[in-house]
Design brief:
With about 400 residues, this protein is an alpha/beta fold. The chain has three domains: about 5-220, 3-Layer(aba) Sandwich (Rossmann fold), CATH 3.40.50.620; about 245-315, no CATH class; about 325-395, Structural Genomics Hypothetical 15.5 Kd Protein In mrcA-pckA Intergenic Region, Chain A, CATH 3.10.290.10. About 45% of the residues lie in helices and about 15% in strands. Strand 2, helix 3 and strand 3 form a beta-alpha-beta unit. The protein is globular and about 75 Å long.
Length: about 400
């Protein structure tokens, strides 16, 4: 196996990282790998609590891909067993637990989406139920003896909840121990994670050492701020850009990020070099190029180009897109609220009512402000616009 020089590898590995524990150990592992021509085992644990991935997940997945490109072994752990515990990282209350079936199904989707970044042919995928599920109660007791309650309470989220007198379930203490056992089982050299995973990564390092295994190097990556410019990217907060977003929606969401995030998004989500001066001089152009590149990565360059054309037509020229799905109805008139729910523009009548009250519903380019409005359907199709990006063409049969 031919590897680049240690310094070349370090230059790439250190890019965008927050912390390497420790750099000296990483350098030693790279030197040994170069000398023996043996690739390092680089592990990333995936929590399949949700089946959809977003650009926040991409930050650490891209780092794992860099290790693949350097010639090292990428190991993706699907935490189907630990998902039944629920990762307490950053949580102010006990996290919902998944069934084994839910965790395994989400895990399959996770790998399919992660393969948009990773080379699937060079990725080893494991499910930690394969070894954790075989542990006996006696094994769990022995595992628990390696860590004290005081050590667990050093973890930020546990300490915060303890001081606020918020419940902490005993099973939550088992999560970092179980994740650490993944490292013991795999004997991996490096583990990657977001900054919110630092405690868990260090537990794995400690448990490896206690089992006579050379401790892993822990590399933490930044947590990407979402489109709101405030909170960590999260589907539940509605500030995420997901791998599976349609091209037009992905393009528009990238353009919606605050200018202050442009440099960070370029740095962790593209291979494009851009200077602060370029951003400050023309943030609009910089953001458009960013959106094109991100859509290209998850769809195609053709899809990215069409997404940009769609955006210009709808938001710059204020025209409806050319290809709008046609919905035909038996009725010749329908209450607008019912119509929005039927079309899927709103999840409920109350949401449809809010959309109308917020002036975000248009019929043939005319804003509708009356929540009791009825839409007449005739032989000429009408264009319904709900919010910024949803368009529907409706007509009576």
């Amino acid at each position: 196996m031919h590897f680049p020089s240690v310094q070349e590898q370090l230059d790439l590995i250190e890019r965008n990282t927050i912390e390497i524990l420790s750099r000296q150990e990483l350098e030693a592992k790279l030197q040994k790998s170069l000398k023996t021509s043996q690739p390092l085992k680089v592990k990333l644990g995936a929590d399949p609590s949700r089946p959809d991935l977003h650009l926040g997940h991409a930050v650490v997945l891209r780092k794992l891909r860099e290790f693949q490109d350097l010639g090292h072994e990428a190991i993706l752990i699907i935490g189907d067993f630990t998902a039944m515990i629920g990762d307490p990282s950053g949580k102010s209350k006990t996290r919902p637990q998944l069934t084994a079936e839910e965790a395994r199904e989400n895990g399959k989707s996770y790998f399919e989406q992660a393969s948009k970044i990773l080379d699937p042919k060079k990725t080893t995928i494991c499910y930690n139920a394969e070894w954790l599920g075989k542990m006996s109660f006696a094994d769990v007791i022995r595992l628990s003896s390696h860590y004290t309650v005081a050590r667990m309470l050093e973890r930020d989220d546990f300490e915060r909840r303890y001081r606020a007198q918020e419940p902490i379930s005993i099973h939550e203490f088992l999560y970092p121990l179980a994740q650490g056992m993944d490292s013991v089982h795999l004997k991996n050299d490096i583990e990657l994670g977001g900054t919110d995973q630092k405690f868990n990564l260090l537990v794995g390092r400690d448990l490896q050492r206690e089992h006579g295994i050379a401790p892993q190097v822990c590399i933490t990556m930044p947590l990407l701020v979402g489109t709101d410019g405030k909170e960590k990217m999260s589907k539940s907060l509605g500030n995420a850009i997901s791998f599976n977003d349609p091209p037009e929606e992905m393009y528009g969401r990238v353009l919606s990020i605050p200018d202050s995030l442009i440099k960070e998004y370029y740095s962790v989500n593209t291979a494009i070099a851009i200077t602060p001066a370029q951003i400050e001089g023309d943030p609009r152009t910089a953001k458009r190029a960013l959106a094109i590149d991100i859509v290209r990565q998850y769809h195609s360059l053709e899809a990215a180009t069409k997404a940009e054309e769609h955006f210009d037509q709808v938001f710059v020229q204020k025209k409806a897109p050319e290809n709008i799905e046609l919905f035909e109805f038996e009725e010749h008139s329908l209450p607008l609220i019912d119509l929005l729910v039927t079309l899927g523009a709103a999840a409920s009548k109350s949401e449809a009512r809010r959309m109308i009250q917020q002036n975000s519903v248009m019929v043939d380019e005319q804003k509708i402000t009356e929540i009791t409005a009825t839409i007449d359907l005739n032989s000429e199709p009408k264009i319904i616009r709900a919010g910024k990006r949803k368009f529907f063409k409706v007509v009576a049969k």
